[in-house]
Amino acid sequence: GSSFLYGYNLSVVNAPTVYIKKFYNETWERRYNQSITEQSLTLLWTLSVSIFAIGGLVGALIVTPAVKYFGRKRTLLLNNTFAIVAALLMAFSQLAGVLEMIILGRFIMGIDGGISLSALPMYLSEISPKQIRGSLGQITAIFICIGVFSGQVLGLPELFGQEFLWPYLFAMIIVPSILQIGVLPFLPESPRFLLLEKNDTKAAEKAFQKFLRKSDVSHEIEEVLEERQVQRNIQVASVFQLLCDNTKRWQILNVVVTMACYQLCGLNAIWFYTNDIFKGAGLSPQMIPYVTLSTGAVEILAALFSGLLIERIGRRPLLIGGFGSMFFFFIILTLCMSLQDQAVWLRYLSVVCILAIIASFCIGPGGIPFILTAELFPQSQKPAAFMIAGIINWLCNFIVGLLFPFIQKGLQTYCFLVFAAVCLVGATFLFCALPETKKKTLAEINQAFARKKMPLEIQEMGHFDPKGKSTK
After folding, report:
1. What is the pLDDT, as a whole number, of residue 412?
2. Could you count the other beta carbons within 10 Å of the beta carbon of residue 226?
3. Is the pLDDT of residue 243 over 60?
4. Which of 141, 230, 311, 455 is the most buried (most CB within 10 A)?
5. Which CATH class is domain 1-187?
6. What is the mean pLDDT of the chain?
7. Is 207:186 a contact under the CB 8 Å cutoff?
């Protein structure tokens, strides 16, 4: 459930926007005896929303030393401290009359998200057998979607989407945090972490037995020990060391591209336009919050569907198909919104395109980038790989939040063509550069990357021996 809080905090600020801005104005008047200017209010609100990404970047930077020192499980456990502190700051901001408490709370909540989106996929990948590694990895994406949907539901006017109840939306963050604090101590640490980084064979054996529900785990221990034999003289790599490792440059490039496209593919633009598109379809403003719940429900269903398919179809087809489908529906959506005055049915087709883009994202790009980051690197390089992925993820998140208003203002509905181009580039790159990783060991994945690089090596070396030896 660590990723639940990330999803919840993506959507929780939408419903009370008007009331929080009113609170900012009242606080400003009380301090300075004058109303805040519209420009200053917009700046404060933009800062309140976008600082979540800055906090996420900080979390991504500290996750590597945290998981190395505390371990995966304990990092996730301690991470709840950030969530609880952030929830208290934001929940009591109105009572204290201090608007800065919301901004600081959003920043601290971002740190929680930055840590959880790296530590959680790492933990899940290390505790799961390779046969279900993809399906279990999709839990991250599924709970992000459930978090988004929960924020939408609790923000309804009948619940906490009211002027004097919006602080409770932030107070609810404490509930899943306390639940994790109560449950996580009873779960074992990652057995791969215990064996490869702590050299604690006995604890690793107990962890495997508890996770796999069987007494004989000799095969699993032997498989991990073989990896340790290969890496026996290798320390946990830093980000700089990983970036300098020429044998992993294609793996790094795949992670960078998938994480960048994850944020730049335009889903944030979809959320921005949803209300306008629903209004254009003839829905009343009172109905729109309830119809918007359909987008959250589609997210959850698509993520669950992906979890069921990922071990049957594989990561590569879902990723490429997801970005490819988003490209197609972005083009259709642009045409519909440009020509919607010509025919009423185009407005309803716009709604269908919105739901199709969200489903396409959740089936592939929504969760698989986190799974790939865990699968493409050995134990010694995973923390550094997740730090790189996290930095790219949160930087692109911040860039979208910063630049999107200008893109939208300059291009209007044609801004979707920018995101269509990103999706097309991502799908094309992954089609050319990403091998399938389904149910494969790290050695098999490395061999698949080597085969994709073979033509380049032939050009450079002149000869290539199929057994892996160069000849002159």
Report:
1. 77
2. 12
3. yes
4. 141
5. mainly alpha
6. 86
7. no
pLDDT at 331: 94
Angle formed by the axes of helices 72-91 and 2-11, to 10°? 30
Contacts of 87 (CB under 8 A, 6+ apart): 105, 109, 170, 171, 172, 173, 174, 177
Residue 103 pLDDT level (bands cut at 50, 70, 90):
very high
Planar angle of CA 183, 389, 13, nearest 5 degrees: 65
Hey, do 1-187 and 237-459 end up sharing a CATH topology, with the first three levels equal? yes
Confidence of residue 272 (pLDDT cuts 50, 70, 90): low
Report residue 1's pLDDT band, with 50, 70 and 90 as the boundaries: low
Instruction: Give the architecture (CATH level 2) of 237-459.
Output: Up-down Bundle (1.20)
Is residue 409 left, alpha or beta, with left meaning phi > 0 and alpha meaning psi from -120 to 50?
Answer: alpha
The packing angle between helices 415-433 and 382-411, to 10°, is: 150
pLDDT at 99 over 80: yes
Residue in 299, 368, 297, 357 with CA at minimum distance from that of residue 333:
357
Counting every residue written for the chain, the total comes to: 472
Question: Hey, where are the domains in the chain?
Answer: 1-187, 237-459
Crossing angle between the packed helical segments 315-339 and 368-375, to the nearest 10 degrees: 150
Of the given ranges (232-246, 247-261, 304-318, 456-470), which has the lowest mean pLDDT? 456-470
The pLDDT score that the predictor gives to residue 325 is 95
